[in-house]
Specification:
5 helices, Formyl_transf_N, alpha/beta, Formyl_transf_N_sf, 7-stranded mixed beta sheet, two-stranded parallel sheet, 24% strand
């Protein structure tokens, strides 16, 4: 399986490392900022790095032409329809909530702010609407009393995202397809940015 990874920061690097350890070929890394730590990690591993022309949008020319699957890991850029069409299986991303709950930015912060006793993570198909694509995998965890968003992310949600991504990749290797279950819109929330 040939992956183009679109991402940034620490979660982008840990996702890159997990993919390489998981026996898939990361053929290109796409970043919004050439100085991002994910770009440095990719270059150190001998992986081609592509800097987005527009930090809010990834286009087909930025995806490696032999890509089976696009994976996003801490990317705030939309993956254009043309880019998704350039990959055999399209694209998936990790969102640190039980989609469709807490779509959009600051999902972990909203989990804490809303006092949710349960949090979770979702691997979802990238689509036109933010965080609204079909669910490929999902799992949950308890939120500890008094836990901050950062603590919840580091303790449970980041590791959960890596596990779910690995599970979906394993499924795709065996079945030559991605699992997909439509999100139930009656449970959707979309919180504004925290200020």
């Amino acid at each position: 399986m040939r992956i183009t990874l679109v991402g940034s920061r620490h979660f982008g690097v840990t996702t890159l490392n997990m993919l390489r350890e998981h026996g898939v070929s990361v053929v290109r890394v796409v970043v919004a900022d050439a100085d991002d730590r994910l770009a440095a990690a990719a270059k150190a591993a001998g992986i081609e790095v592509q800097v987005q022309a527009n930090p809010k949008l990834v286009v087909a020319s930025e995806i490696d032409p032999d890509t089976d699957l696009i994976i996003t890991a801490h990317s705030h850029a939309r993956i254009g329809k043309d880019a998704l069409a350039a990959a055999r299986f399209g694209g998936i991303g990790y969102h640190p909530s039980l989609l469709p709950r807490h779509r959009g930015k600051a999902a972990v912060e909203w989990t804490i702010k809303e006092g949710d006793p349960i949090a979770g993570g979702t691997i979802y198909h990238l689509a036109d609407r933010m965080d609204a694509g079909a669910i490929a995998a999902q799992d949950w965890c308890f939120v500890k009393k008094g836990e901050t968003a950062r603590e919840l992310w580091e303790r449970a949600l980041a590791p959960l995202g890596l596990k779910l991504l690995a599970d979906v990749i394993d499924y795709a290797k065996v079945h030559k397809a991605l699992p997909a279950k439509a999100q139930d819109e009656q449970f959707a929330t979309s919180a504004p940015s925290l200020s």
